[in-house]
């Protein structure tokens, strides 16, 4: 097999890899690191409801299933207790 075939195969695999990674950020609940950092800064690294600063989870204000995205404005940090409360009550 000529060398150029290996190059083309490598490029195709790289494009597929990037495409899968991009899809993950678009379609899953995955929140980018930069968004998490911005959200924590906005909420002073505390739960949005109480002063809990450890064990924070990231809550989608608008559910991912309802079209909510992973943008800074749609994500809020919550402690496990309040996350459970919000999730239960919708
Ligand atoms: Zn809390």
Describe what is shown at a glance.
With 90 residues, this protein is mainly alpha-helical. It contains 3 helices and 2 strands, in the order H-H-E-E-H. The chain has helices at 3-27, 33-42, 80-89; strands at 57-60, 75-78.
Shape: elongated
Q: In DSSP terms, counting alpha (H) and pi (I) runs of 4 or more, how many helices? A: 3
Distance between the termini: 58 Å
Structural class: mainly alpha
Major sheet summary line: 2 strands, antiparallel
Q: Helicity, in percent?
A: 40-55%
Report the β-strand fraction as a percent range: 5-15%
Number of domains: 2
If you compute it from the alpha carbons, what radius of gyration comes out, rounded to the nearest whole angstrom?
19 Å
What is the N-to-C succession of helices and strands? HHEEH
- List the ions, cofactors and other small molecules found in this model: zinc ion
In total, the number of strands is 2
Overall residue-averaged pLDDT value: 89
Strand order of the largest sheet: 1-2
The poorly predicted ranges are: none
Fold topology:
Layout (H helix, E strand, L loop, with lengths): L2 H25 L5 H10 L14 E4 L14 E4 L1 H10 L1
Antiparallel strand pairs: 1-2
Zinc ion binds next to helix 3.
Q: What do these coordinates show?
A:
- The protein is elongated, with a radius of gyration of 19 Å.
- The chain is mainly α and 90 residues long.
- The protein folds into two domains: 1-30; 32-90, no CATH class.
- 50% of the residues lie in helices and 9% in strands.
- The model has no long low-confidence stretch (mean pLDDT 89).
- The chain has three helices and two strands.
- It has a two-stranded antiparallel ribbon with strand order 1-2.
- The structure holds zinc ion.
- Zinc ion binds next to helix 3.
């Amino acid at each position: 097999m000529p060398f150029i075939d290996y190059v083309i195969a490598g490029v195709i695999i790289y494009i597929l890899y990037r495409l899968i990674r991009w899809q993950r950020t678009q379609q899953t609940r995955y929140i980018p690191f930069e968004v998490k950092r911005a959200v924590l800064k906005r909420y002073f690294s505390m739960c949005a409801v109480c002063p809990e600063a450890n064990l924070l989870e990231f809550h989608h204000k608008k559910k991912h299933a309802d079209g909510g995205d992973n943008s800074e404005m749609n994500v809020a940090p919550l402690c496990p207790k309040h996350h459970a409360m919000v999730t239960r009550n919708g």
